[in-house]
Amino acid sequence: MGRPPCCNESGVKKGPWTPEEDEKLMDYISKHGRGTWRTLPMHAGLNRCGKSCRLRWENYLRPDIKRGRFTEEEEQLIINLHSVLGNKWAKIATHLPGRTDNEIKNYWNTNIRKKLLQMGIDPETHKQRTDFNHLVNLSQLLGMSNLSTSMSPWTNPLGLQADVTTQLAKLQLLQNMLQVMNNTNSLVNVGNPYLLGNQILNGTNTLQVEDPVLRCKECVKPASNHPCLSQTHSDSSHQNISIPGTEKENETATQEVIGYNQNIVTIQQNQAENILPALVASCPRTSTFSQMDNNYKAAQMSTFEAWEKFLLDDDETSGSHWKEILDLTSTSASPISW
DNA sequence: AAGCACACCAACCGCGTCCTC
DNA sequence: GGAGGACGCGGTTGGTGTGCT
C-alpha cells in the first residue's frame, strides 16, 4: 500500500492566492522549512492542495526570486540553452539564478518565441524556417518603407526621421530576402541571425559566421542532430562527449553553451556599435559564394545590382527597383511565388 | 468613455518519474 | 516486485492589465 492520497479532498480552495494565505505559507515555511507538501497545508492552516502550495512558494513567494524584466544577457542565455535543452524549463532555470521555470517558460512563449518567428527562425529547431509564412512581414515592411517616405518627421510614430525609418525598413526587408535566398539555395550559410554580432567581417571583408547553436568542436556539426552528442564517438577525438538524456550530458552541454554564450557576449562587446541584429553582410559581393553554380551567380549578381540601385535611390522611383528585386528574388529563389 | 483585442503571467491540469509501503 | 501516492515538470488556461479604435 502506498501513501495516502493528496488533493483528493473536495472543498480545497483554488484560484488566486490572497495576501493572508501567502502570509500563512511564508510564516510556516520560515519556521518549519518546506517539509512535505502533502501535509504542509494542514499544518499551516491552509485550505489548499499541497501541490498548489508548492507552486505558490516556488514561483512567487520564495525569497530568492528575482523580479523585473529579463536582461539581454538572460534572454540570450535562455535562447542558447533552449537550443540545446529544448523545453526543459526547469533545467534552463537552474542556470538563471532567481528565475523560475514558470517565469522563463512564460517569457519564452510571450516574447522570445515571437521574436524568433518574426526573424524567420523556427523556435523549436533554432534553424531558419523552411516555410515562407514569415514573408508576410515583407509586405508590412514594404508598406512601412513606402509610408514613412511620405510622412513628415513630425508625424512619424517612432519619432524618427522619415528617411531613417525608411532605411531601417529597407534593411530589414533586405535581410529577410537574403535569408530566403540562403534558405532556398543552401549556398551561403549566414547562421542564425538572431544573435547580435553573429556575423563578423574579417580583414579581407569576407563574411564569416558565428553560429549560436552548440557545435561539435571537431567536425563543427550542430550538437542537436549530431552523433557526437547522440552517442560517444569511436573516434578518440570525440571521446569526452557524453550521451544525451543523462544529467551528465546536460551539464556538459549547458556548460559548453554558457562558455559559448560568453564568447558571444565578448563579440557583442567588441561590436558595441552594431545596433541592428544581424542584418545583411555589409558587402554582399564579397561574401563567400564558392559553391555557386554559374547560373545562380549571374542571378545573384543581378539581384545585388538591383539592391545597390535600390539602396542608393532615395526618391519615389525606387518603387520600380522593388519590383525588379522581387522579380529577381522570385526567379533565383525558385520556390517563392509572389 | 465604452468596447474590443492583445499581452502578460499566475495558477491549474495532466503526465512521467520517483518513492514508499 | 508491484501497487499506488507524492513530487516535479511542461503544457495550457483564464483573469487582469493595457493599448487601440
TrEMBL record:
Signal peptide coordinates: none
All residue ranges annotated as the HTH myb-type domain in the record: 9-61, 62-116
One cellular component term from this protein's GO annotations in UniProt: nucleus
Ranges in a coiled coil: none
InterPro entries xrefs: Homeodomain-like_sf, Myb_dom, Myb_TF_plants, SANT/Myb
Biased composition range(s): Polar residues: 228-243
Annotated ranges, domain Myb-like: 9-61, 62-112
GO MF term set: DNA binding
Keywords annotated in UniProt: DNA-binding, Nucleus, Repeat
CDD domains registered for this protein in UniProt: SANT
Gene3D superfamilies hit by this protein: Homeodomain-like
UniProt-listed PROSITE patterns: HTH_MYB, MYB_LIKE
Protein name: Uncharacterized protein
